[in-house]
Please model this.
Amino acid sequence: MSSLSSFSPPPLTTSSSSTTQQRRSCVRRSFRGGACVSLSSITVSCSTKEPKVVVTRERGKNGKLINALVRHGIDSLELPLIQHMHLPDLDRLTSLLTEATFDWIIITSPEAGKVFLDAWKAAGTPSVRVGVVGSGTASIFDEAVQSSKQYLDMAFAPSKATGKVLALELPKNGNDKCTVLYPASAKASTDIEEGLSGRGFEVTRLNTYTTAPVNHVDQYLLELALSVPVVTVASPSALRVWANLTASRQWDNAVACIGETTASAAKKLGFRNIYHPTSPGLEGWVSSVLEALEVHEQVQKV
Model:
């Protein structure tokens, strides 16, 4: 098996039917013959196995999941469904970290963590105390903690990895004023600030980024993805894109969600075969994928 087992060529930049046919032929060979083919700007690293899982995060952010699945002998098809875009509050985040101090910084997603770390470094790495929603988010800080432990205190994670539980359990210094900086996606719920404000925290929320559907989904890759047993999703935004893409199809394969929040969104959108770990994180996510594949194989044998 090739060391690169995810097939993820960039979108076509030409509408030429001959190029499309060449690419379709290449895609078929990539899952059957193990060849490596280069078509102008399209380079395909081919595996000898057909993919069993679709990974849908933004391009370049699926590597950890892909590699974890490879260790179980599972190949993936990369089909990014969303893209992240920074918002004006990001500049304000850097300014606040430079000019003010907060009792807590609350981070509830890996993307929010990456955006925060960039702003934190731009602000000169001031001393901060961070609370995260779960281990998946906490892992974003591993490298920064190793190099700047005296300035970056990873001090809290709730007993259950949800925003509501975090808001209930975040430590507060008695009746003293306690300030929280909450940089988040513009699409994140209000559970955090409402829960903390209700307990007497003073919360400053900044919408530092948002998510949007990708500008283009390659139609042939989509056709391949529709036949793959499991689609992985890491956010309600990605789910909504997938729901739109499959609205006119009779698609009923498995959705493996990163956590409970995304799984709840999947249920509301009408998906039926939903799998998710109790606590968000890569290990639990992979276990959910394996469970979904096991059920799929059992159904196929019936």
Q: What stands out?
A: DSSP finds twelve helices and 14 strands in the chain. Residues 282-301 form the longest helix (20 residues). Residues 1-48 have pLDDT under 50 and may be disordered.
